[in-house]
Write a structure and sequence with these properties.
The structure holds two protein chains of two kinds.
Chain A (H helix, E strand, L loop, with lengths): L2 H26 L2 H5 L3 H7 L6 E2 L3 E4 L3 E2 L5 E7 L4 E8 L6 E7 L3 E9 L5 E9 L2 E11 L6
Chain B lengths: L5 E8 L7 E8 L21 E8 L2 E8 L8 E6 L7 E8 L4 E7 L2
Antiparallel strand pairs in B: 1-2, 2-5, 3-4, 3-6, 6-7
The chains are: A alpha+beta, B mainly beta.
Chain lengths: 147, 109
């Protein structure tokens, strides 16, 4: 084997080993949906359409948040075959907060803590089968959490 | 990155036959910078946030989460699994926008 060829081969293998997983990861993260400043664009980029209001999505949030930097949210979907749960804060600089995908026996349930820039509706969208469902709850924010 | 930046607990609540589930709680250590905040010298602090969190039960993917900058600093996450047994392994991995990553395993108790 020629030395030149060998070096090419090795560098190629290195490039593949490092770049391939990075690309795979970058492809998973929905950049367009997360970076947009408009709630409607975030939903469009998540391919959410024709969402129906549903009381079967249970959202637990405080009525008032002292500090918008840490607002605990619990979401539970009682809609059969729930596949994904998306959390959006209407008045945040970038509304899409998180998108959770459940599989292999994970319950459609999640608790996390989010940032809220100001008093706003917190909107949850659930995908079940090929349908979308939504529910929302408003939170009064006393101190900005994005500063 | 050090593996001690994640705290995890996985506890079986009731048994699977009677509608029990395993509750997994995760606390990660991460700045979650939005890229909009300024430091004391009025310079923007670059965005640094977790973008992807995946959880597996005995190697099988159960949860895949994409996050934006709106998750609070030192992210907290609870999720529930049906069908997990005591002794099973739950693993959580995160990746951030700067290419950093961390993984932690925990046994269901």
């Amino acid at each position: 084997m020629q030395r030149r060829y060998f070096i090419k081969l090795i560098s190629g293998a290195f490039a593949l080993a490092f770049i391939a997983p990075m690309n795979a990861f970058a492809a998973i993260w929905n950049k367009a949906a997360f970076e947009t400043t408009k709630l409607s664009d975030a939903e469009k980029n998540l391919e959410i359409n024709d969402e129906k209001p549903s009381e079967e999505i249970l959202i637990t949030l405080p009525d008032k948040a002292e500090n918008g930097a840490i607002v605990q949210i619990e979401v539970k979907s009682n809609i059969p075959n729930t596949e994904t749960i998306s959390i959006l804060v209407e008045k945040n600089p970038t509304p899409l907060i998180a998108h959770f995908k459940f599989s292999n026996g994970a319950e459609p349930f999640v608790v996390t803590r989010i940032k809220m820039a100001e008093t706003s509706d917190v909107k949850v969208v659930v995908k079940a089968g090929n349908q979308y469902f939504t529910n929302a709850k408003s939170v009064v924010v006393l101190e900005n959490g994005c500063g | 990155m050090a593996s001690d930046n994640m705290k995890m607990r996985a506890q079986l609540k009731g048994d699977a036959a009677s509608g029990g589930y395993t509750e997994v709680k995760v606390l990660m250590s991460h700045p979650m910078e939005t890229g909009r905040k300024k430091d004391d010298f009025d310079r923007l602090i670059p965005a640094h946030f977790v973008q992807l969190v995946t959880a597996t039960l005995n190697g099988k993917t159960v949860l895949e989460a994409q996050w934006g900058t709106g998750i609070s600093k030192n992210p907290y996450l609870t999720f529930r699994l049906t069908g997990a047994k005591i002794g099973d392994t739950v693993a959580v991995t995160w990746h951030d926008n700067l290419g950093e990553t961390a993984t932690q395993n925990i046994i269901v108790t």
